[in-house]
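[Meeting: bench + compute handoff]

Bench side (C.D.) handed over the final construct sequence. Compute side (W.E.) agreed to return the predicted structure before the next meeting so the bench team could plan truncations. Sequence as handed over:
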Amino acid sequence: MKKIDQDEKLVFWGDSTSESGIRGAMENLPVEPRPTAILCMNNLMVLGTLHAIRNIGLNCPNDISVVGFDDHFWADIFIPPLTVIAQPTLEMGKTVAELLHQYILNDAPETTSQRINLKATLIVRGSCSPACNQRFSQAGELQKNENSN
């Protein structure tokens, strides 16, 4: 997978509210050259970001692509249908429950850290521009939801 350099000036740390999504978009969209996409780390920030994009007269996905995190039931009925990174929430819950069960059975062993990697899935829908979708497909890094728009 190709690594993309991170420009710290384009990273906005919000507080997981729609208002911080608005602030983040308003802070980053006037930058020249304007970003081609925004990744929001939760759905409230997605809503704020889309609100800001519309209020300043831009269009998603024609002017800017938006990607959310988590695949809620409304993501594919949203206009435009929202491209998301879907977390394996069921697998995450099972893993935590198993670890907690082991912890309890071992009568509270010493605290240790453990890294567990679970695979997230990119579900491309309408909030990404066609050019962005094509780049994902050409790179072979896309798991496209066949039922999406």
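W.E. noted at the follow-up: The mean pLDDT is 82. C.D. will use this when planning the next construct.
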